[in-house]
Amino acid sequence: MNRSAPRWSVSCALALACWWASPAAHSEESPEAAAPAKPAFNYALGAIASSSPDYAGGDGRKTRLRPAWAIEYGRFRISTSRGSAFMGHGLGPRESGASATLAQGDQFRLSASLRIDNGRDGSDAPILVGLPSVRSTLRARLSAGYALTPRWSVGAGLSQDILGRDGGAQLSTSVGYTWPVTEQTKVSFSAGASFGDHTYLRGHFGVPAGGSGALPAFDPRAGLYSVDAGFEVMSALSRHWVVLAGARVSQLQGDARRSPLTLEPTGYSVSVGLAYRCCR
Description:
Elements: H1 5-21, E1 41-53, E2 61-73, E3 76-79, E4 97-104, E5 108-117, E6 137-147, E7 152-161, E8 169-180, E9 185-196, H2 198-205, E10 223-236, E11 241-252, H3 254-258, E12 266-279
Antiparallel strand pairs: 1-2, 1-12, 2-3, 3-4, 4-5, 5-6, 6-7, 7-8, 8-9, 9-10, 10-11, 11-12
């Protein structure tokens, strides 16, 4: 089987979507059409404190405080991990890294993004010492969201390691419900499932023969590897200041759950953040 096929398929899908959303693809429109409005410039700057498992399947925890920011100009955005959450867009998923909205309507949104995947190594947990590191790489992602009703939405995203560093491909799906408690506060609930190809599962949950004397060799198969659910509360304290809090639980499935690296198949994460945001 040609392992480069998923990488090329995602790249082709991104290229086709970008062409479709470009002005050149609609050059037949009447020149008398109204000029588009000037793109809006939005930004958010803050910090998020979080506690989460040391790695997927690990029994240790890591707690940290990190900056969270996002800059948005028209259809383009650059943000840190979780930074775009402060922007308050309803049709997720909200991408980190560099992203662009390719198409958007009242109910549908299509976007593409590039982000750095920091990988994993032996410093994350003692059990990982002696195993091959999951190398940092660049991932391309194509995401879509659709609002079924004003409160219910579904989403999906396909990502691929485009540097050929054995990062493989991932597919994520989600369903969400947004409850506007007040004009200033909303609560979002969501649940999802994640799938990975053989390359991704082997890198994150596999154990090569002779890779670690304390662990048996294990070669996981492609498929569903995780399900998750959680909630997020966002409230505007004033015109510019916003506070965010959330919790999420995930559970490994299939061969990811059976992996010798999985010490705790169910993990949870909590976070709280504060940011200043502005629109121009």
